[in-house]
Structure formats: structure tokens, C-alpha cells
């Protein structure tokens, strides 16, 4: 018998397949939704943890910033108290009479204090301001605008606050006000802002700073310069200032090179060099044009001083050599760097600067290679050189450091700058993290170690400095010094009691500044070394220490309407110095009265040195001058209005 075989109908098998497929789809849908829910939960947890870390980082930065601000305020207050106490201990300022207090002001500081006193003594602020605008009681034979000539805005502001004594803004407004105030109060402020502008131009050219920020800072600089130009009574030197020339050159170069920040590495490097060439070429051309249209003697003198300073040319001009002999324009000595090393500032500054500079160079290479800057840096990244603020301060510190190596006066700007930069570096975990990333440290977690070092290193430094220098500070406060100038006091008392009220005095600028403060008398010149006219008047007055005839000196003094000339023994009898900065030597070179040949010095003048010959009391000196006062340090001669020729 044939076996009976049964076959499932296709309808049944097809339905079973569809049922199994539907079951699979249901199971797949359930499992997929479960996976998606798990992924969303994990994502929400990651976002929540990220927010918690960012919030913790913000709180950490706020706390560190608050403690840093409090520490800075405390240090500043303590330093101000120390300076006040030290000044009082040195000069016995609080225990002296008014005349002796005024004598403790040296040179130019006394002059500015005189104007401050004059503003306080005026019946009203407006009347005192008008007296300074039309001032005929300061420089003989001239009615000058003292506010314009001597930049008396600090004295005006302080006197106004003193009379009336009885918020906070947006960042741009604060910067605008601070920039305007800085330019208004200090005549050399535009040179400092030029260094800042140079750093910003370099950062913009290297694409290390957003263009909007650079444009914003440029607008602040230009608007502040325009306002200060008006407040300084259309001071033409601002129109030819290096700051304005740099801004104009930068704007023109950017206009001509609109696609500078594109292309491969070599192309961008060539565009960068061309861009910097255009910036400086346009800036120098603009400055040269402004100097031709609006000649300013001060700018020409500054250029001449710089040429002589850098050895590009030599000169026998008295004013140029006289300025170069000032300590501020001399090359700094080794004692500056020794003191910075002893206080541990210089070694740590070199460390911080080296790390930040190397990291900045890495950032510059990445930008020129086309890589974008990471705007959301983390501590773990170890890239301190990608922070625009760090890059700016590195460039600024290097510029100030170079200027300090050339001009000793720049140390007053560079020294506090390196102190702040060094403190930032050793207290910054980002700096230590950058080093650990370079070293590829794996034995200890680099984040933890960087946080520990950023706290431990400054603590150790502060403790060591306190242990070494706190006893010195106390000893300086305990040391009672005395300021005594009996000869100068005698001279001032004679001027107050014996000299006519309308008398005009001639002498050295430092002495005349003291006379102006203590007696209010009219003088021929002042200790202001940025005014070319006053410097030329100083040169004429200093001819009393040159090998000039009595008639020649008399003509120069009467041209300044001089009533009395004061000869200082310290200048007349000054011993020879190797730097050749004696007033007598500068005058002899300028007047071509001496020559140097084969190491020997020969005189070419037929007259003796005036300050020595006039003490002999013989004709023709007695015909032109009459001695009316003398002591060990000062000799005062009246300039005769009627000549008496006695032989």
C-alpha cells in the first residue's frame, strides 16, 4: 500500500510566517524603544554631570578671584601705609613746619604741588582754573597756559575732589573712561598705549583674537585720542603720535588685505609678513606727513634722542645730551636684576614666561596651519597659550622687558607687570598642567598635581619672602632719618624777606622748582624735560657754568628778564665723571670750547669758567653783576639794570 502523505496547505504556512514576523516586529519595537530610553537616560546623565562640573568650575574661579582680589587690595593698602610711614620717618614730615615740609618735595614734584596749592588757595575752582589758563606769574616775560604746558589735570582733579568731597558700568565704558583718563593725566601715556596697540595688532594679524574685539579696542583708542586732543588744547603732538600712526596704518593694511587669513601655511606666512610691512609703512608715512603739516618740536627732539641713544648718530647738542644723561634714559645696571633675583621674582618670571611663550608659539603654528582656536578649553587640555589674555600679556611683557633693557625708567612699568604675571603663573593650574602634558606624566594624575602645585608653590614663596623681608621692613620703619638743608632754607628765607615780589630768578631747573614752590617767585625755567622751549631756556641759564664772557652771560640773562641769578657750588665744583654728564662738560662740548685729541683735553676758549671767575669780584664781572647773598652752597648775584664800568 502506498503510504499516505499529508502536506500543509500554503495558506497555513504563510499565515504562520506572517504571525512570526509580526511577533518579531513587536519584540524588535519593544527592544528598540528600550534601547532608546536607555540612551536618553545616559545622555541626560552626561549632560547633568557636565553642568555640575561647569558649575563647580565657575564657583572655583569666583572663589579664587575673590581671594586674589582681597589679597591684592590688602597688599596695596599695606604698601601705601608703609610708604606714608617711611616718608614721615625719613623727613619727619608731620613734625615739621610748612616751609620744611615743602622743602622735602624734590624738583618737579614741588612744582606740581605749588600748582595744587594755588588751586586750593583760589576763591573758587573756576577762578583758580582761569588763573592757570592765563598764567603770567610762573615763567618770566611769558603768559602761558600752565594746564596745557605742564599737564596739570591730576592737580585739577584732586583739587576738585578736595573741594566737593562730600558706578560701575559695562566693560567697554570702563575701558573707554580708563583709556581717556590715562591719556589725559599723563603726557607720555600714548607711548604705553602704542605698545598695547602693537600687541593687539600682532595678535589680530596672527588670528589669535576675534576681529570684533580688535575693532572695538581701536574705536576706543581713536575716540579717546580725539577727546584728549581737544582737552589738551589741540596738542599737535598727539596727531603725530605713534599710537595714531599705528591705528591708521593697521586700518589701511587691513583694507588692502581682506583675505589675509586664508590659505596654506607658507601662503599665510608670506601674507603676514606683507601685512606687517604695510602696517608700518602706512603708519610711518602718516606720521611723517603729519609732522610736515603740523611741525612739533618735541617729536623731532624725541627722534633725535632715540637716534643718539641707539648709536645711529652723534651730536654735540646740549639739550639732547642733557636728556640722555638723566637716569631714566640710561641703561639699567645689574643691581635691578640682582634685586629681582633676591626676591625670587625674576627666576619664577623666566619660568612662567618660558612656558607661556612656548605654548603661545604652538598656538601660532596651529593657527597659521588653519586649525581653529578651541574656545572651550578645559584644565585637562594643558594649553595655556591658547588663552587670548595670556598671549596678550606675554607679548606685552616682552615689549616692556626690551624697553627696560634700553631705558632704566621703564623699570617702573615693567617691574610691577612681571610681579603680576609671575603671580598669575605660579598660581595657575593651567600652567602646571601644560608642563605635565609636555612631559606626558602618568605616575600621578596631572590634574590633581597641578592643583596642588598651584597652591603649594605660591604659599612657599610667600612664606620665604615674609621670613626674609619682614624684618627689613620693620627696620626701615624704625630707622629715624633726618632731612636737613640749612643752606637751602637760608636761601629761601632770604628770597621771602629780601627779594622784591616782582623779582625773576635764574638757576638750575631743580632749584627753581623748589623756589617756585616755597616763595612763588617768577623763574626763568622749570624742571619739565618734555618742553623744548623750557629746555632751551635751561641751556641759556646754564651758560653761567660755561667758559663764557661776562657780557655774553649778561645778554642771555637779560633776554629772559632775569633779576637774580643763583650759582650752585655743587654744579660749579662738580668733580669729573667718566660718563661725561657734568653740566660743565656738556656745555663745553656744545659750545665747542674744548676738544679731545689722543686722550688729552684742550681748551679753545679765551675766557675762564664764569661761575669761578665771578667769585673773584673784579671787572668786568662787577660791571654786570652784584653779589647780594652767599653761603656754602649758593651764591646769588643781582643782574644790574644800569651798568657801571669800574676798573
From TrEMBL:
GO molecular function: mannosyltransferase activity
Basic and acidic residues: bias regions: 35-46
Membrane topology summary: Multi-pass membrane protein
Entry annotated with the keyword Glycosyltransferase: yes
Record-level GO cellular component terms: nuclear inner membrane
Location of this chain's protein in the cell: Membrane
Region (Disordered): 1-51
Ranges that cross the membrane: 62-82, 160-185, 191-209, 239-257, 269-290, 346-368, 389-407, 413-435, 447-466
Entry keyword set: Glycosyltransferase, Membrane, Transferase, Transmembrane, Transmembrane helix
Main location group: membrane
The keyword Transmembrane helix is annotated on this UniProt entry: yes
Family annotation (PANTHER family): C-MANNOSYLTRANSFERASE DPY19L4-RELATED, DPY-19-LIKE 1, LIKE (H. SAPIENS)
Similarity remark: Belongs to the dpy-19 family.
Name this polypeptide is given: Dpy-19-like 4
Organism from which the protein derives: Nothobranchius rachovii (bluefin notho)
Amino acid at each position: 500500500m502506498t503510504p499516505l502523505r499529508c502536506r500543509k496547505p500554503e495558506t497555513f504556512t504563510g499565515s504562520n510566517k506572517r504571525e512570526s514576523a509580526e511577533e518579531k516586529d513587536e519584540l524588535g519595537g519593544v527592544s528598540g524603544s528600550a534601547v532608546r530610553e536607555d540612551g536618553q537616560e545616559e545622555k541626560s546623565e552626561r549632560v547633568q554631570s557636565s553642568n555640575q562640573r561647569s558649575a563647580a568650575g565657575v564657583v572655583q574661579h569666583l572663589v579664587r578671584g575673590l581671594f586674589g582680589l582681597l589679597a591684592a587690595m590688602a597688599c596695596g593698602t599695606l604698601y601705601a601705609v608703609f610708604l606714608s610711614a617711611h616718608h614721615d620717618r625719613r623727613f619727619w614730615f608731620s613734625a615739621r613746619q610748612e616751609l620744611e615740609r615743602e622743602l622735602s618735595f624734590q624738583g618737579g614734584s614741588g612744582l606740581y604741588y605749588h600748582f595744587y596749592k594755588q588751586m586750593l588757595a583760589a576763591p573758587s575752582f573756576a577762578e583758580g582754573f582761569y588763573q592757570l589758563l592765563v598764567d603770567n606769574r610762573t615763567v618770566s616775560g611769558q603768559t602761558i597756559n600752565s594746564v596745557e604746558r605742564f599737564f596739570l589735570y591730576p592737580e585739577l582733579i584732586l583739587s576738585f575732589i578736595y573741594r566737593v568731597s562730600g558706578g560701575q558700568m559695562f566693560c567697554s565704558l570702563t575701558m573707554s573712561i580708563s583709556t581717556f583718563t590715562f591719556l589725559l593725566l599723563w603726557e607720555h601715556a600714548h607711548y604705553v598705549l602704542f605698545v598695547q596697540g602693537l600687541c593687539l595688532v600682532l595678535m589680530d594679524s596672527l588670528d589669535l583674537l576675534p576681529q570684533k574685539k580688535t575693532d572695538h579696542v581701536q574705536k576706543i583708542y581713536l575716540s579717546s585720542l580725539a577727546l584728549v586732543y581737544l582737552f589738551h588744547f589741540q596738542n599737535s603732538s598727539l596727531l603725530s603720535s605713534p599710537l595714531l600712526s599705528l591705528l591708521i596704518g593697521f586700518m589701511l593694511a587691513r583694507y588692502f588685505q581682506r583675505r589675509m587669513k586664508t590659505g596654506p601655511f607658507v601662503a599665510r606666512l608670506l601674507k603676514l609678513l606683507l601685512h606687517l610691512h604695510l602696517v608700518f609703512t602706512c603708519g610711518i608715512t602718516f606720521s611723517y606727513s603729519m609732522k610736515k603739516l603740523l611741525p612739533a618740536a618735541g617729536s623731532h627732539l624725541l627722534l633725535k634722542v632715540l637716534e643718539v641713544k641707539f648709536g645711529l648718530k652723534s651730536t654735540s647738542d646740549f639739550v639732547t645730551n642733557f636728556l640722555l644723561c638723566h637716569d631714566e634714559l640710561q641703561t639699567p645696571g645689574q643691581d635691578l636684576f640682582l634685586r629681582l633675583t633676591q626676591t625670587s621674582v625674576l627666576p619664577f618670571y623666566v619660568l612662567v614666561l618660558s612656558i607661556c611663550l612656548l605654548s603661545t608659539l604652538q598656538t601660532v603654528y596651529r593657527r597659521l596651519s588653519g586649525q581653529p582656536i578651541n574656545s572651550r578649553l578645559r584644565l585637562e587640555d594643558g594649553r595655556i597659550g591658547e588663552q587670548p589674555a595670556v598671549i596678550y600679556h606675554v607679548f606685552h611683557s616682552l615689549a616692556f622687558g626690551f624697553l627696560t633693557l634700553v631705558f632704566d625708567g621703564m623699570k617702573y612699568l615693567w617691574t610691577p607687570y612681571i610681579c603680576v604675571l609671575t603671580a598669575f603663573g605660579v598660581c595657575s593650574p593651567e600652567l602646571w598642567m601644560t608642563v605635565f602634558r609636555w612631559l606626558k606624566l602618568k605616575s600621578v594624575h596631572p590634574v590633581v598635581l597641578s592643583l596642588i602645585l598651584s597652591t603649594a608653590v605660591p604659599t612657599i614663596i610667600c612664606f620665604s619672602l615674609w621670613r626674609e623681608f619682614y624684618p627689613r621692613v620693620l627696620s626701615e620703619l624704625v630707622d629715624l632719618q633726618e632731612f636737613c638743608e640749612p643752606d637751602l632754607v637760608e636761601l629761601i628765607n632770604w628770597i621771602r624777606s629780601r627779594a622784591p615780589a616782582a623779582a625773576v630768578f635764574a638757576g638750575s631747573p631743580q632749584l627753581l622748582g623748589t623756589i617756585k614752590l616755597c616763595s612763588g617767585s617768577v623763574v626763568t625755567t622749570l624742571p619739565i624735560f618734555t618742553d623744548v622751549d623750557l629746555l632751551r631756556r635751561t641751556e641759556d641759564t646754564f651758560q653761567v657754568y660755561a667758559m663764557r664772557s661776562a657780557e655774553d652771560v649778561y645778554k642771555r640773562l637779560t633776554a629772559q628778564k632775569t633779576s637774580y641769578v643763583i650759582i650752585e657750588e655743587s654744579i660749579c665744583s662738580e668733580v669729573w665723571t667718566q660718563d661725561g654728564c657734568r653740566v660743565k662738560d656738556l656745555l663745553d662740548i656744545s659750545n665747542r670750547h674744548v676738544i679731545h685729541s689722543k686722550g688729552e683735553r684742550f681748551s679753545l676758549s679765551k675766557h675762564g669758567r664764569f661761575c669761578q671767575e665771578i667769585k673773584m669780584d673784579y671787572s668786568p664781572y662787577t660791571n654786570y653783576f652784584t653779589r647780594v647773598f652767599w653761603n656754602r652752597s649758593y651764591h646769588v648775584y643781582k643782574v644790574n639794570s644800569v651798568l657801571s664800568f669800574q676798573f
